[in-house]
Amino acid sequence: MNKPLADSGKPISETDSHSALRARPLIDLRGVQKAYKTPAGDFLALKGIDLQIRPGEFVGVLGKSGAGKSTLINMITGIDQPTAGEICVGDRAVQKMNEEQIARWRGRNVGVIFQFFQLLPMLTCAQNVMLPMDFANLYNSPKERRERALFLLDQVGIAEQADKLPSAVSGGQRQRVAIARALANDPMFLAADEPTGSLDSRTADAVFGVFEGLVAQGVTILMTTHDRELASRVTRRVQIADGRVLEDEHGV
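Below the sequence we write its predicted structure tokens.
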């Protein structure tokens, strides 16, 4: 498991990074298919996806609306189950877990970031970040959980907003809170589904800069986007169309 955000904030060394990239895949998809039932018959959203992601990679999944990007994220995070194929994350076969096992596994091991933040409006920013720790029963006390939340909010540059409600901060700041919340339980990887899609270009660039900083510390990120300019800055681009991988290339 990646441990990039210990309270020391130390980035992993270049040697460690190279070793991680030579390690076995953190995420391994083999022949993944997903069919949805429609009045016109089954619709295949994914048509046999093979994809391996190694620790420390920043992977951008590109494609038009309906290409299968979000479905792919849902498969990897266990939000939805494949119709066929295998999905391994670390040493767990995601498709073999039941609903209760997946919920427990995802809460402890996966950080999910959505386009529209999905923060609880009645909780402060810090309390939103503490929520996954409460659910997973991590850290020994409310004091330790708050300290962890403040540390993570500082990591994403908005510690001063900790005690404000989400409605009192900007969209870009809300997305930073969502990133901090996703990091709360030191997950194996972050899965971000169009995380800048609801932001203006300047704010999107700033949020993307947060992702780049996390990758520099060793965090593994899988991000869907239709923004080719931002996608040009990831370390690997996977192009999806009509439920298939068309291109898989390394970038910067």
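The beta strands are 27-38, 41-53, 58-62, 84-89, 92-93, 110-113, 189-193, 221-225, 236-241, 244-250.
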